[in-house]
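Morning F.,

Quick status update on the modeling queue. The single chain you submitted on Monday has been processed. Sequence for confirmation:
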Amino acid sequence: MALNITDSLSKAISLALKELYGIEQSADSITLQDTRREFRGDYTLVVFPYVKQARKSPEAVAAEIGEAVKNNLAEVCGYNVIKGFLNFEIADAYWLRFLEEKASDSHYGIVSADADKAPVVVEYSSPNTNKPLHLGHIRNNLLGWSVSQLLAAAGANVKKVNLVNDRGIHICKSMLAWLRYGNGETPESSGMKGDHLVGKYYVEFDKHYKEEVKQLMQSGVEEEQAKREAPLMVEAQQMLKRWEEGDKEVRALWEKMNGWVYAGFDETYDRLGVGFDKVYYESQTYLLGKELVQKGLDMGVLFRKEDGSVWCDLTADGLDQKLLLRKDGTSVYMTQDLGTALLRHKDFGAERLIYVVGNEQDYHFKVLKLILGKLGFPWADKVFHLSYGMVELPNGKMKSREGTVVDADDLIDEMERTAEEMSREHGKNDELSPEEQRHLYHILALGALKYFILKVDPTKNMLFNPAESIDFNGNTGPFIQYTHARIRSIVRKAAEGGLQSQPGAWQALELNEKERGVLKVLHSLPSTIEAAAAAYSPAMVANYAYELAKAFNSFYQDTPILREENQHLKDMRVSLCAAVAFALKNTMNILGIEVPERM
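Structure tokens below.
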């Protein structure tokens, strides 16, 4: 028996089309839908595309295909026709055999990765070392981690990498402000995390810089000129040039302040439960980028302007001219991205290079791909920008320079406090030790945060509302986590009661509507993961987990499990519970969410 009925159905339909009407259509191209709840059936074929060639009415075509498939496929026990919609009914025996095979499969839905495959390299996080991680970074990190998990679950050999933007004018702004206004303050003396401390001086720079611009404008200088000529900005630009020239004093300050930031980042990454296989630093890749710029000049695909700056003319590609080196010889983001892309390709020989970066950088990655191609790299077409939408709050957008961001650490703290309040209110922690309670609050908080962000299509902007995310009801992480804990409690109680699994005795059983509903959702897990991986969309997995939890809870409310007197039926239902728990654990793991055994 094939344990993927949709594949078997598609093949039987393809054969019927050929035999009945001479229509050649591959099984892979046949689309089946879940039958709508108001109609009897499990899978639906829309027959309208075949009516013209068959030269019969939609109802007649549907009936003929249905009869042919039923006669050729034992798993189909019936069909019905609603106009041009052919609804197939799948026999209980199929669903029970499916459950028999999958009930104890703790890796159900997950494909083992082939370590010999060329890897898929996923870059995410990419923070600047001038400020702490904030809510926008959280979406980036969670999306990058989850996409990596998703691709791995679909069989890819995945390498997770981070590119730290540890040099540039923004870093010099924090350094200069600390020199001017810091009075030697350190993380130890202030009691602040290092990334928070450095971020404080980035905001401080902006405050004093704006005041200088204002004063220049009051003296009659035009705004754009004032922004360029404000003393702080001029000094920051000079500091960047000194850094690129290897000035020992500037480099020592840079290393010290970046060290503070890295310690802070690591603490936040650990709390978020994300990590990397390799970390790149812009300070180590921009020189390779400069070498590529020189190569482009030698090849004639780049050009130098009279002021000494270097550009790539992309007007023939429908874009504009792109700066690659400033007139003073300092590099820009594109310079180091060229170098990093080449280094990463050399390091991994990647099948794909996926960049998880917000949609405000769409233009940047179009340009990166085009320039790599013009430089003669055949793997340029393997570059893929996973462009995601921005995170907004009920009160609007965040601005780092103005200090109006939602700090990642503060948000996690707030989520944990809310998780504790909600858990106590619902009595979810009464039987746990204090240590178990603290762990529960943490995983509920992270489950709420991660699920709320990842359930949204990555391409869409989203509004983050912490209060909505941590509800124990509805489409939330805690709802799914609680469902898993409830299921595990049932399975434990069944084992404690001495229930012995006897799947061979299930074949005479008849399934009720709720049992079939759960089994149908379970059955679609492998295809859901495959489709989600192809679309780079953890949202598809998140919403699958919710649908499965919802179907289970509907079954649980209406169907006795441990109170069932028929031992074979009881055994089957407990096995169904166990299979759902595995599927929930596997899907939530793809999202980076831990599911509790007890609540």
